[in-house]
Inverse folding.
């Protein structure tokens, strides 16, 4: 039963708006009244007269569209801010920079000191396409940074570019064997390491020597990142793979009442290239989570990598037309199907909602099998497990999402070719490539779909609006001449906005308190500068958020937004730089 909320003398009343509530019982409204952070009335302007008292702030929205606060269900926040918003920032996609472009940015960042942290030269996120299969070389960096160790992450976070000093610190030379599931690229003539380290286990050989970020630095990065999220209307996010130090930083922000978002963190249960015997126990993950869980911060989440990445050919497909050409990496699955069943069942029993990284159709199948095993062993519960990426599916598996209560966590930028077809078509054939990203089919089969940016992986921003444009047109705005990709899978904006809001809240277990504009829920709202339900592709791209409210409190306002008294002195994202 919904509690009866008193609507007299509200704190804030918005009038003359167009509220797209995503509440099927009352899809549209003109006005909303807020008291103590909650929505207490949703209706027509005239219905809300009684909510206005002598101290009520009344804001005229002038017909602007308001949607529920947005949920980005896949972010790597602290990594994103550290590597994509500070340090040495290499040119971002979609433009593909040349090697010289990258080197001149590195030179400038080294000279002005912006890339130096704790005695290391750090940054990212370069595109593997710039350097080809051999990767970049240590000599390119040595020439610029000399004896300072350098570590530059690629935009997929699956490889790193280091210099001679970094290799020396890590003790890597021509005699160092590849670690399990990783590659130390070596010069075919001399045998010397080239400075290109592929996959987690190889990256970690150098990465573990970089001084750990302090608690204060981590808090500052998180707070800066959340300000950026808020500027796009985002009120909640799921952190897709956290270490304990991140939980500690977010916990401290939450306790200081500085956490301006609802957060679900996911501790790494299975890393790409991890060794089965070294997996943490579900009980251990739950015990760590219990130390940091508080308020808006839910630390009880887990992340599992079920397969790898396409550029390294470690994606698990049901049928392949070509053999693996990188046999030294782990093949296909990161973890055996039987082990995955055990891990998922244990995490589920310990109350941890699981996000599984699956690119290929075989990965998705074994992930669904694992949830099926967990449901059999533990019975039904209200945990929303999800599969993220979910690029390829066998037709047989599509109905299983709704049957098993597994949601699909999509990246809307993966709605068009984005140069990906060239990589996977030789492996799976043209016919199956053309069925990639089947979002409409999944939705029609009853799957709950949420939207996550995966920032900073592949995408340069958490701005959700360009992705909405791509998912609703299936056209790559940077290559419109390529036409529409897999047209039947287009989603309408009426379908996409709920995915962005209530479905994300549901996946994070928050739909009872947030995710729609509904009496009794928290006032988590985004005021937009245009009506995204009616505008065309180009206009959608340019969409700006004017005001973001979390629990009735502004966490972002643009200069031309309807000014709230309570927004006085609010920092804009630029001011966090
Ligand atoms: Zn990710």
């Amino acid at each position: 039963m919904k509690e009866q909320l008193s609507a007299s003398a509200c704190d804030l009343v918005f009038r003359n708006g167009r509220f797209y509530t995503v509440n099927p019982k009352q899809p549209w409204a003109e006005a909303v009244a807020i008291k103590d952070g909650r929505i207490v009335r949703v209706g027509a302007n005239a219905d809300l007269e009684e909510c206005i008292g002598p101290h009520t702030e009344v804001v005229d929205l002038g017909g602007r569209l308001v949607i529920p606060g947005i949920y980005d269900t896949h972010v790597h926040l602290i990594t994103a801010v550290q590597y994509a918003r500070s340090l040495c920032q290499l040119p971002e996609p979609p433009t593909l920079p040349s090697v010289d472009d990258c080197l001149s940015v590195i030179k400038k960042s080294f000279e002005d000191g912006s890339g130096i942290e704790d005695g290391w030269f750090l940054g990212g996120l370069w595109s593997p396409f710039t350097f080809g299969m051999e990767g970049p070389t240590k000599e390119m960096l040595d020439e610029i940074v000399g004896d300072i160790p350098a570590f530059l992450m690629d935009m997929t976070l699956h490889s790193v570019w280091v210099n001679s000093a970094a290799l020396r610190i890590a003790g890597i030379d021509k005699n160092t064997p590849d670690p399990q599931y990783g590659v130390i690229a070596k010069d075919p003539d001399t045998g010397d390491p080239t400075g290109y380290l592929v996959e987690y286990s190889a990256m970690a050989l150098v990465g573990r020597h970089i001084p750990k970020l302090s608690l204060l630095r981590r808090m500052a990065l998180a707070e800066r990142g959340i300000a950026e999220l808020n500027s796009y209307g985002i009120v909640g996010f799921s952190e897709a793979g956290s270490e304990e130090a991140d939980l500690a930083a977010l916990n401290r922000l939450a306790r200081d009442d500085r956490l301006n978002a609802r957060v679900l963190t996911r501790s790494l249960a299975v890393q790409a290239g991890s060794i089965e015997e070294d997996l943490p126990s579900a009980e251990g993950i739950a015990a760590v989570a219990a130390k940091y869980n508080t308020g808006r911060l839910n630390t009880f989440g887990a992340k599992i990598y079920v397969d790898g990445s396409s550029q390294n050919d470690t994606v698990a497909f049901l049928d392949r037309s070509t053999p693996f050409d990188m046999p030294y990496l782990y093949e296909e699955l990161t973890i055996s199907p039987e082990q995955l069943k055990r891990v998922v069942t244990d995490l589920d029993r310990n109350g941890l909602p699981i996000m599984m990284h699956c690119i290929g159709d075989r990965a998705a199948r074994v992930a669904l099998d694992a949830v099926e095993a967990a449901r059999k062993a533990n019975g039904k519960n209200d945990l929303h497990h999800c599969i993220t990426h979910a690029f390829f599916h066998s037709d047989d598996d599509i109905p299983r999402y709704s049957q098993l209560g597994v949601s699909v966590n999509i990246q809307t930028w993966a709605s068009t070719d984005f140069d990906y077809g060239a990589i996977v078509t030789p492996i799976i054939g043209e016919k199956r490539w053309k069925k990639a990203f089947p979002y409409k089919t999944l939705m029609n089969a009853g799957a709950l779909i949420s939207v996550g940016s995966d920032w900073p992986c592949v995408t340069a921003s958490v701005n959700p609006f360009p992705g909405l444009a791509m998912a609703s047109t299936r056209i790559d705005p940077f290559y419109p001449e390529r036409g529409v990709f897999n047209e039947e899978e287009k989603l309408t904006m009426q379908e996409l906005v709920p995915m962005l809001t209530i479905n994300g809240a549901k996946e994070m277990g928050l739909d009872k308190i947030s995710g729609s504009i509904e009496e009794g829920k928290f006032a988590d709202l985004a005021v937009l500068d245009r009506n995204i339900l009616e505008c065309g592709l180009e206009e959608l791209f340019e969409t700006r958020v004017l005001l973001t409210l979390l629990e009735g409190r502004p966490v972002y306002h643009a200069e031309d937004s309807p000014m709230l008294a309570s927004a006085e002195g609010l920092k804009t994202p630029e001011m966090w730089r």
Remarks:
- Residues 2-63+520-565 form a domain with the Urease, subunit C; domain 1 fold (CATH 2.30.40.10).
- The chain has a mean pLDDT of 91.
